[in-house]
Structures are given as C-alpha cells and as structure tokens.
Amino acid sequence: MNAARQLATLALVVMPCLPACADAEAEPFRTADNLILISLDTLRADRLGAYGNPRDITPELDRLAARGAVFERVVSESNWTLPSHVTLLTGLAPDRHGVVSRSLGVGEDTPLLAEVLERSGFRTLGKTDGGNMSKRHGFDRGFELFLDDDDGLEHTLSDARAFVERLEEGERYFLFLHSYEVHCPYDASDATLAELASPGASFVETDGRCGDPHFNEAHLDASQALHVADVYDAGVRDADALLGDFFDWLDARGEFERTLVVFTSDHGEEFLEHGRIGHAGTVYREALLVPLVLAGPGIAPTRVGTPTGLMDVAPTVLELLGLPALAGVDGVSLVPLLRSGADGDRDDARFSACQAAELASVMTRERHLIVDEGTGRVQLYALDADANEQRDLSAIERDEVARLRARIEARRALAAGRTHAPRSLERLSDDELEELRALGYVE
Ligand SMILES: [Zn+2]
User: Fold this and answer.
1) Measured by CB atoms within 10 angstroms of the end CB, which terminus of the chain is less buried, N or C?
2) pLDDT tens-digit readout, 321-332
3) Residues within 5 Å of ion ligand 1 by Cβ?
4) Distance 17 CA to ligand 1 centre (A)
C-alpha cells in the first residue's frame, strides 16, 4: 500500500464518524463483534519494545502494538493482583469495589464485565491461573465456562482456541485470559535464558522463589538482582512467543477483522530499583506502569500519551462492542482518545494505592507523587527526566506537592461515600494457602 493510501485508510479508521456525523456522540459506536482480553500478570510496561525496551524480548507483542493503539502511560490502580483485576473487570477503583484483601471477593451488587456481556448474548470463557484470580473471589461470575487451574499460558491459549472453534457461526464471544507465566517463581527455557544473560549477573536460584519472603530477606546484591531480572526477561520472551502463535492463529481465522484484542497486565515488578524485589510493597513506577494495547477492527495504529488506568478498560471495550456504558463507574471510555487523540477535559491524574503499606500515589503527565500515609513521608519525581525515580523533588516543588496531595484527599473523600460492599470469604483451604505460598503472597 502506498503512503497516501495508508494515510487515507488511517484517517478513516481513526475517525469513522467525524466530522460527517459529529452529533452522533450518543449513538452506539460498534466496531467489533467479539472481545479477547489478555492479562499477562506482573508484566512491566518497560519490558516491551513498544514501550521503549532496547532489549528485543517482545517481538510478537510489538507486532500487535504496531497494528493497534498503544497507551503509553497506563497506571495500575493497585500494585497487586486481586484489586487490580477487579478494577480491570468492573471499571471501579479499588477503594470503590473494596476487594483489597485476600479474604474478600467481588460484592454481589458489583457488576462484572463478563456478566454484562453474557446478558448481551455473548458466549463467555474465563481462564485464569487461579490463586488471587480464582472462583472464590467471584471472578467466575458471567462466564459460562470458567477454568482457574494453574496450568500455564500455553494451556490457556489452547483452551481459548478450542472454545472459539466450538462456537456457531456469528455467535459473539468474550475470552478473558489471565496467566502467571511471568509472575514469580520466575521461569524460562534454558535457551532463552542463555541468550539473555547479562554481563556481570551473578547466579542466584530462582526456582520456587518469590520476592517475598525469599529475595527480600536474602538481601540480594545488584549483580544477583540482575540475574533475577534476566530470568524474568527470558520468561517474558517465552510468553511472547506463545502469544505470537496465538495471534497467528487469530490472523489465519480473520479474527482481527471482527474481534477486539486487548492486551494488558495488572501491575509491574521491582528488581531492586528501590530496594525490593517483587511487587505489592511499593508504588514506584516499576510497580505500577503496565502495557495496554488495543487491536482489531476500527483501531488504527496510534500511540496515546495521555495517562490512563485499568479502570478505563471496561468502559472502552463496552463502547467498542456497541454496548451501553456501565453506570457509576470510575473509569472512562478511551474511545475519544482513539478517535482523535485529543484529550478534551480528561483528568490526567491517576490515583493508585498500596494497601499493605499505606502508600498512595498520584501520577500525572509530568509528576509522580508518593505519600506514605503511615509515616508521612512524601516523594515527588519528574516522569520524563528521572526514569528511575531517584531524585526526590518534594522539597523543591512544594506547590506541586500540595496540589497533588489535594488530589489524593479528594479521591479519598469521593471513595468514602460510594464504596460497593465486597463479600467476605471463608477461610482459605490448605490447598489454596499452598498455591498463594508458591506465588510468594503468604509466608
Ligand atoms: Zn498480579
């Protein structure tokens, strides 16, 4: 295709409705029949080439990104699995859905994306790797088939293929595919690891070990942390290859012409940037920034720099599927950003919290404020100039600190009056405890 035709096609798909039907704002805007939502748990945004990683470990995800919309600054609202995924699947911030501890599940009155789609006639498959993503937390609601056995990404993708192949012609479907493939204990093929071994990295056993309690109590040095990060990277590359096969299968079926594919993660991972390994302990950007890529019909290749969050995913996909918006959610549809790239009046401050350590975070286009509500410590970082968040500007930019602290307080006040009631769960069984122990969540 020549450049002029490419541009014309791009303009058509980015702005299907402008300006000829500029007043069509209230009308349903359906571009896709089906939805595949993939969450590769614990994947830092900066590991993707599409997010600037010079190390070529995600060629397949980069290929997906090149054909779709890449949201460059996606801030997870929580730094661990359960609250983040409830946010992803409800459009509600963690302080609104309330599912912020392992002893809680999604409240009966909290609508989940799968329930909305099932009611709209979609065939629905949920496949997770269990643990914090198991049925007991309510994630199975709305899925005609929900599997939460921890059998890895390869099985998950083959279950997805089998489910789609069994559908009747024209049936709409929703697949939610979650995997701990790159979550600790880090694991990778020997061949990939050998290729990615960094000079200066010192071997440390990663098999069966997670950030908490193992690595953080072992006080790894920088060279050992580098090895741990290499194993993580190698696992990312292996996962990327599996996803590439799945995307090829979708392509061969022509699915990208009718199916919206959303790829994301629930939080990042730390490798001693701020003294820790793992996640759920801090809210620095390596723990919060995740990828978000949308590909499919009507989505032109584009990059969006406006800060967004996981809470925006459910409103966005509903709009692209031509379904009514969820009432009273915190997230907003990203479709206007896809159409025009314009930010409008969009609030660019994204709030996140870490329940375990009373940390609150607000990230805007330019600054990242972290407040430790337990100790009162405040940190402020410049996003572009200080990629590793090493230079605290809080003593210099006092006005900015005050402005962003007010955002945290406003957020708290808003949430206090409007929280959904989460469901209290029974005590964990021994098997469930063992599963969480293997993922490093319990001692
Ligand atoms: Zn997670």
Assistant:
1) C
2) 999 999 999 999
3) 41, 81, 266
4) 37
Sheet holding 74-75, edge to edge: 289-290, 74-75, 308-309
Name the pairing type of β-strands 423-424 and 104-105.
antiparallel
Question: What tokens were used for 43?
Answer: 């994947």
Spacing, Cα 318 to ligand 1 middle (Å): 24
For 145-188, how does the pLDDT look when each residue is reduced to its tens digit (9 = 90+)? 999 998 999 999 999 999 999 999 999 999 999 999 999 999 89
Give the span between the Cα atoms of 167 and 219, in whole angstroms.
51
CATH homologous superfamily of 32-347+433-438 equals Alkaline Phosphatase, subunit A (3.40.720.10)
CA of 232 to the centre of ligand 1 (A): 14
Name the pTM for this structure.
Answer: 0.91
Q: Are strands 123-127 and 173-179 parallel, antiparallel or unpaired?
A: parallel
Q: For tokens 């978000």, what's the residue?
A: 292
> Across the strands, what pairs with 278?
270
Domain ranges of the chain: 32-347+433-438
> Distance of CA 187 to CAs 27, 68, 281, 434, Å?
47, 29, 22, 19
Give residue 268 CA to ligand 1 midpoint distance, Å: 8
H or E segment to which residue 17 belongs? none
